[in-house]
Specification:
The protein is mainly alpha-helical and 217 residues long. It has one domain. Helix content is 77%, strand content 0%. It has nine helices and no strands. Helix 3 crosses helix 4 and helix 5 packs across helix 9. The longest helix is centred in the middle third of the chain and has 37 residues. The chain is globular. The C terminus is likely disordered. InterPro entries: DUF4013.
């Protein structure tokens, strides 16, 4: 699975132009819209991986990329609330109750850390399920999501994605000074989404291209 993920970004006849476009969109993400386009592209990567497509998608139909990316962003924001709301609530309780004790600050840190790990494990699967089904409902289909993540296939894929992501982002972050790093960062993102998609689909025991019946929104 790892070798497939690392070679996937280089598949297809136009893989180099695709990588260059994606790399350019990373620094342009400060303008917001390019960030949504990138997320839309990653949704296509997920679908390709889920259907066992050996060719990486291209940057075509930019309007569709933008709309899909907006949906991905909304889903990501919704899951981030699982971390932010409890953490903010604890901070308010400490500020107005316990007078900002050191123990209270440690509690906020621990709760935030635990929730971040939980969301960091489940949220990628939610995005994968959304991209496969092309439905908001799929991102919150907790039964299907749990069936996919509570498997060795997803756990292994998630761990591999984390390792690839951390190493790649460290290297890409350093090289971004000379712009080449943006190519590395985009490459790594494609590989991590590929890993997560393949692990989730394998965990569900689906054949390539098979999906659950979900109403598209």
């Amino acid at each position: 699975m790892l070798s497939d993920a690392l070679s996937f970004p280089r598949s297809g006849d136009d893989w180099l132009p695709t990588l260059v476009i994606g790399a350019l969109l990373i620094p342009l993400s400060v303008l917001v819209i390019p960030a949504f386009i990138l997320q839309g592209y990653f949704a296509r990567v997920i679908r390709a991986a889920a259907t066992n497509d050996s060719t990486a998608p291209s940057f075509t139909d930019w309007g569709d990329l933008l709309v899909t990316g907006l949906k991905m962003a909304v889903i990501g924001f919704a899951y981030s609330l699982v971390i932010n709301v409890p953490s903010l609530g604890l901070q308010l309780l400490i500020a107005f109750g316990a007078n900002g004790s050191g123990t209270g600050a440690l509690l906020v840190l621990l709760v935030t850390l635990v929730l971040s790990l939980v969301v960091g494990f489940f949220a990628p699967a939610a995005l994968v399920n959304f991209a496969i089904e092309d439905s908001f409902g799929a991102a919150f289909d907790f039964g299907t999501i749990w069936s996919g993540v509570a498997t060795s296939e997803y756990v292994v894929a998630w761990l591999l994605a984390m390792v690839v992501g951390v190493v790649g982002f460290l290297v890409g972050g350093v090289l971004s000074i000379v712009l080449v790093g943006f190519l590395v960062l985009f490459y790594v993102q494609i590989a991590t989404y590929y890993l997560l998609a393949r692990g989730f689909v394998k965990g569900l025991g689906r054949t390539p291209g098979e999906s659950a019946t979900t109403t598209t929104l």
